[in-house]
Amino acid sequence: MNVRLGLVLLVLLLAIANFGCSGRVAATLTANAASVAPSITTQPTSQTVAVGQTASFSVSATGTAPLSYQWNENRTAISGATSSSYTTPATTSSDNGAQFTVVVSNTAGSVTSNAATLMGIDATTTTINVTAYGASGGGSTDDTSAINNAIATLTGGATLLFPCGTYLVTGQLTINVSNVTVDGSGCAIIRNTASGNVMVIGAAGNVSPDYGPAVALSATANELDTSFTTVSNLGVSSGDYVRLQQGGKDPYGDTSCDPSGCRGELVKVASVSGNMVTVTTALHCTTRMTPR
What is the pTM of this model? Predict the structure, then answer.
């Protein structure tokens, strides 16, 4: 019994010694800083793309980490779009005007970005730039596949744009879409290393190219000429395109070729004076052709 009391007394003395004379213990308190709700510093911006291309949107935000992101298209959450940037799938004309927002959140709250609009993919206003599909225009790289990929996205009313450069192709380019403009920027050259036509604008299946009525030339159009004269006014103006093509009979007789397989070229109108049309590039061959 005495032994047990002695042990208890010893423990109490040690405990009092640890407190010091005053019996007080020093303590350190740590206070956690309050979380800061997200704030958007850079809003997503509207994008203009061509049909078949993707569009990318991004946002920058501050606030206590971690920040979470959820992108929405027309107020509907996009599955898997949970980072600070979002890239759409290949666009279609039905995507024109779609609005994209992103909600940024953390434990302290959330904030929704301004809406960014996907614009310019309506077929009536679309410009398909062949360089966006990989064409180099450098004159040494085969651009056939890239240009054909661009042609594949064309819809009625679109423009196929060739920026200045020399585009090397190893096969015929064919456009089977109605109401399409081919724009060579006044300086583009398409060089075909194979035999045959460089570009054919024709129809396949139930597609009908939208050409104007054929009007005969009043005189031979020679190679390197920059103008030609027709028997009647074509009704074109500067900036329009004219297809010159042999076919059937002209004022000089039978051209001896079927209209679908005759030689032809597409030229851009520089100016018009009566029935004389001046073009931006010299003609490539001497032939009695029929403007279309």
Answer: 0.38
Instruction: Decide: 230 and 213 in contact? Cβ < 8 Å.
Output: no
For residues 117 and 51, membership in a common domain is answered with yes
Report yes or no: 173 and 151 within 8 Å, Cβ to Cβ.
yes
Supply the DSSP symbol for 248.
S
Alpha-carbon distances, residue 168 vs 1, 37, 150, 173, 243 (angstroms): 109, 56, 15, 11, 21
Cα–Cα dist 218/271, whole Å: 18
What is the distance between the alpha carbons of residues 211 and 37, in angstroms, rounded to a whole number? 61
What integer is the mean pLDDT of 220-234?
85
Which strand (E) or helix (H) includes residue 73? strand 68-73
* Residue 73 in domain: yes
Q: Are residues 69 and 92 in the same domain?
A: yes
> Where in the sequence is the domain holding 113, given as residue range(s)?
39-121
